[in-house]
Input
Amino acid sequence: MKRRKFIKSASLAGASALLLNNKTFSNIIKMNYPLDILVSGGFIIDGIRGQRFKADIGIKNGRIVDIGNLIDANGEHTINASGLIVSPGFIDIHSHTDLDLIPNPKAESKIRQGVTTEITGQDGFSEGPVSERDIERKLKNFKDQYGEDLPWRSLGEFLDDFSTRKFSVNLASMLGMGTLREVVVGMDDRPASSDELIRMKYEVEKGMGEGAVGLSSGLEYTPGSFAPTDELIELCKSAPGKYRIYSTHMRNEDDTVLEAVDEAIKIARESNSKLLLSHLKVSGKTNWHKADAVIEKMEAAIKEGLEVHADRYTYVAYHTGLENLFPLWARDGGTNKFMDRLNDAFLLKKMKLYTEAKVSNLDGDWNGVLLSSIGKKEFKLYQGKTIKQLGEEFGTEGFDAAVRILKETQSDVMMMGFGMEEESTVKILAHPRVMISSDAGSHAPYPPMSRSIAHPRAYGTFPRAIAKYVREKNICSLEEMIKKMTSMPAEKIGLVERGVIKKNYFADITIFDYEKIQDKATFTDSHQYPEGIPFVIVNGKLVINNGEHTGSLPGMVIKG
Output
């Protein structure tokens, strides 16, 4: 884009002066051309400064073209931001909004909470490469769900395909190490051969060259959980230094969480990677006290010279597949083998000991396991019920009810587990190296996006960070919280000219009322938009205007 020349007048006094960090900023900028959008009179928190300041913002051709007192400026759209906070658009550094954009490109639950950029491909799973071992099932599932043929076989082809589509948010992707293992090694619990490791390293180089912004692992999920530490180190080493970001859903987040943090730090240290601990938590009542020790390990690694960050959502329940309450050995080999083991009475007794112990550590035992999504239509009536309630309906114990619903749905069941507490959540969220993430896809309160119960984080993570944790609990300043949601994730991922309100940067902007911003979604009534975010701009286009979606779809695919 050609740069415009601006006519600036110097040192005008009086009412035209702006306060910037308690200093007088006296330039008045006279615009001699129309803007696309003029944001007038708001309090800017730019993502990097320690103090807000009052100024106007001029937007033209997708970029911020000036910041100041834009006297006599006019725009195609003028936003009166008087009394409102003007922030960079929020960056969801751990998101699952990717294929959701096919049936619902408006990305309603995300854009309405101020999210303008999504970093997906997390927890070891990316949309490419596609495993040819199971291609027929994948093709059928994609056709059934999205009404079209699966058009890609690699991550690069996925990013290229999405570059031709229209949606409301920006999208970047990690490369999933679990996906790589499925493609090369399969679903079995065994070490990779030397030839397989060479092929996986090649796939890392290929995927990073195709536009991935980092690597992700999901070490509680199959088949990523079967990767030994040395394999993960070698794969990270294969990524170019600039994009050697290791985002990890650690091997354990409850009883052996401290050992899992140690492993993640070891992988980062020995591969010279930038570490990102995904949705950092200490889950289970007997582990809540470990939050301090987790933070101490992070800080020790930082003092050692490692680049360590974490992200976390603003709720005390996680969201995962119901099968993940069962031991890893039971899930070895994929869904079909898991189903076989569920039908083996001897193995089922062994599973019950493990699963009952895990569930007993949740807040509410089987009442702490809430079913959110079931793939088969005939079982949708169980969504929104706890396993305890399901057992009462079936006339069985909780474990037997869980096994029954897994078998009847071929393990296509998602759950929310109430495993965390507020005190340790506050400690983690308050840490200066912890960013905000939703760990969720996008939803909407209408079909097809409303067919399952969403975790409330899909609608409320970012407003809740401000409303509950700044305005109510005061765990940090508003400026610091905005940094956690904007410039910090942008810098971590290496996003160019985003995450900061700055001249010539992309115009991704969220405008909110600090006194009114509020999440509304709950665990049982999740499909509710937040309040207090009247305007959201993406790439210089007004997407949310006076609280309503304009239908604009200006999002871009961002490649590394």
Observations:
- The longest strand covers residues 35-44.
- The CA atoms of residues 16 and 435 lie 36 Å apart.
- The chain has a mean pLDDT of 93.
- The radius of gyration is 24 Å.
